[in-house]
Amino acid sequence: MTAQHPVGVGVIGAGNISDQYLTNLTRFPDLRVVVVGDLDTARAETQARAHGVPEWGTAQDVLAHPDVDLVVNLTVPAVHAEVSSAAVAAGKHVWSEKPLAVDRESACALLDRAAAAGLRVGVAPDTVLGPGLQTARRAIARGDIGTPLSAQTVMQYAGPDLWHPNPEFLFAAGAGPLYDMGPYYLTALVALFGPVARVAGVGSTARAVRTVRSGDRAGTEFAVAVPTHVSALAQFDGGGVSQSVFSFDSPLTRTGFVEITGTEGTLVLPDPNTFGGEVRITRVQARDRDPEWEVVAPVGVEAGRGLGVLDLARAVRGGQPHIASGELGYHVLDTLMSIDASVASGESVPVTSTVGEIPLVPEDRDPYAATL
């Protein structure tokens, strides 16, 4: 690639999440979305036309397109590794929705092939680049809560069968609340505490069969292949600990709950499935008093999904590391799979992978500026 024009982007997968990606990717001056591909080419055409993308077709049309430098993989989790590997084989950098793969072997093979070819792999969630988490990281680095000690996270509601018109894949292997929503929370925790060393988990499945409850297929039943409630403990290399709930079984919706407790205060983060939101700190007070809150001034531009694609593209052109890297995605996947193994075995499980310190987003970074 040369540095005289925006990075050419091809999108594979024109499902629900593609709207958010395409809305943002087509607004970043450093990117040029040239083609959308899908198994359903009519759906690819609809999305391409809706977002002003000039071409559409199949996944192979995206991979073969000479103007595509970077493939955005928005397919279902079961084929993430297959599609990303095909992109690497076609000589393209790749950004994948989470998780990186549904098994360690195909994830490692993908990263090895990309490294051998001199290509980059980035992995969602890119919410880690948003001003919410970035502001929290800077607050911790300044010592605003002293030494961080522990974390609590909660993501619980009645499940995506309530609203998704085709929810079956969210209850299949490689999904469920742990793999579908866990990456947002685990990626945030790794960014704040560093690599995970050991995990323990318990899980349950409330119903073996669920029913589609919205859209044209409402009333359709489908089998559930994964635990739909998981409680997990994690110990980090640096000594911190966390406890997390991931559930599709709760009538009480409680999502986006992330608290980091330090020696001098507790930091409350915004929902890690979002890019912005308020960061607050409370300090030690009498038990019978309501907490007093300090609001931490946000740093950065919110933008939205696709921010990681932009960071990857700019990093490729600039020769610097990208933030939501394949290595980070693999460590999060390894952690999730270790939690899954603990649920199955009833024993704590070590996490054998690691990841280096995750770079901060420069405070003055503007996704809407033309830099390439």
UniProtKB/TrEMBL annotation:
It holds the Pfam family GFO_IDH_MocA. The keyword Oxidoreductase applies. GO terms for molecular function: nucleotide binding; oxidoreductase activity. Keywords: Oxidoreductase. Gene3D superfamilies: Dihydrodipicolinate Reductase, domain 2 (3.30.360.10), NAD(P)-binding Rossmann-like Domain (3.40.50.720). Residues 134-267 form the GFO/IDH/MocA-like oxidoreductase domain. It comes from the Bacteria. The keyword Oxidoreductase applies. Residues 8-123 form the Gfo/Idh/MocA-like oxidoreductase N-terminal domain. This is Oxidoreductase. It comes from Streptomyces griseoviridis. The lineage of its organism: Bacteria, Bacillati, Actinomycetota, Actinomycetes, Kitasatosporales.
